[in-house]
Amino acid sequence: MSDGRDERDRPLRVAHLITRLIVGGAQENTLHTVEDEHRLHGDDVSLITGPGIGPEGTLEPRARAGGFPLHILPKFGRSIHPLHDWNSTRQLTRLLRDIRPDVVHTHSSKAGIIGRYVAERLRIPAVHTVHGASFHYGQHPLAYRTYVKAERWAARRTARFICVADAMTDDYVAAGIAPREQFVTIYSGFDVEPFVSPPRPREDVRRELGLEPHHVVIGKVARLFHLKGHEFVLQAAVPVIRANPDVRFVFVGDGLRRQEFEDWIARHGLTEHFRFTGLVPPTQVPELIHAMDVVVHTSQWEGLARVLPQGLIAGKPVVSYDVGGAREVVIPGQTGYLLPRDSVDELVEALLELSGNADLRTRLGQTGRERFTEQFRHQYMTSRIREVYQQVLEATHPNRRTPTGEPRTSPGAPRTPGEPRA
Description:
The protein has 422 residues and is an alpha/beta fold. It has helices at 25-39, 60-64, 82-99, 109-121, 141-155, 166-174, 193-196, 202-208, 230-243, 258-267, 285-290, 307-313, 345-355, 358-372, 378-396; strands at 13-20, 44-50, 70-72, 103-107, 126-130, 160-163, 183-185, 216-221, 247-252, 274-278, 294-297, 318-321, 336-339. Strands 3-2-1-4-5-6-7 form a seven-stranded parallel beta sheet, sandwiched between helices. A six-stranded parallel beta sheet has the order 10-9-8-11-12-13, with helices on both faces. The model is unreliable at 1-5 and 401-422 (pLDDT under 50).
C-alpha cells in the first residue's frame, strides 16, 4: 500500500566512498551529504573510507557521531600501493555485497577509480563527484597523462558525474573523459549560518589574534602546502605593507611549509604583520573569516575553493587567481578581483585598493552575500544530489517499483539495485 509519498522522496540505500576523512573541502562536502541523506531524507546511507590521518586534522569523530554506518578500510590510503590497494578492493567488494546499495557515490581520485571498478563488477550504478580534477596544473607530464587515461577508463563505469563547478566539467570534457551530457554542476554546500552571523564577536577574535581595531586584515584559509600559493601573498605583502603599514595578514591552516614561510617573513622583517593560526577545527573558520576584512586565495589549482563563497557569505570581498571555478563566484566589480594565475603585480594592486577603501570592501562583500547564500546551503546541495540518484536509477531500472511502491518481482524485471552478478 502506498504511503502517500512521491516516488522521488522515498528513502534510498547509498554507499559513499572517499579515500580519507581529513579536514578538507571534499571531505566536508561528502560528510554533509551523508549526514543530510541520513537525517533529512531518511536514506539508508553508509560511509566507507580509509584512515583519516594527516596534518590537516581528521573528521572521523564527527562521522562516528553521525548515526550512520562508518566503515574504515585500514590500508586504504592516498598513495598508490599495489598490495594494499588490491586488499582494499577485495574488502570493498565484500562490503558492498553486504550493503547492497542502490547507488555507489564515489569522491576523490583514488576512491573514484577503485569504487567505480567494484560498482561495475557488482552491477551497481555509480555516481562520481569531481571535487578537483585528478590531472591538473603543476603535475609531471607522465602523471598527468596517467590520470587522464585512468579517468577515461573509470568514466565508462560512471552513470553520472557531479562537478562542484562548471570549470571541472570543461576540464573533463576537454580531456576527453566523457561527453558533456554526462555531467551536472552542483556547488559544494556547507553550513552557511555561521558565515551569515558570526559565532563570536569580531572584536574578541581579533583581539585574541593580537589585532587592533585600525588594522586592515587580509586572510588566507588553506593548508600550508605546495600549489596553495602562499608564496604569492608573501611576495605581495612587501609592497602592500610598505604602502599601508596598518595591513596585517592571517594564514589559517597548517602544513609542511609553515617553517619555510615563517623564516621568509622573519628575514624580511615582517613578523609583526603576520599571524599563523595553525590547524583549527572547521567550526572555527567562520569566526576567523569574520575577523578579516579581505579574503585572498592564490591557489594554483583548485576545483572551487570553499573559502571563496564562505568569504562572500560572511560579507567579505574576495581576491582570487583565475583557476578552477573561481570565476563562477569571484565577479570583477561585483564581488571581488579575479586575477591571472601567479600574478603578483595585479595582486598588489587589488590588495592596496581594498585595504584603502572600506566602502568598496562593504559593497563587494554585500553583493556576494546576497548572490550566494542560498546557493551554497548544504541542504540544497543534497536535495540536488538525490535528484541525480533518482535520474540514474530511473535510467538504469525504469520499472524499479510498482505504482504502490513495492519492488517488482515478475520474471524478466530488472535486478534489484545492488544485487551482485551470479
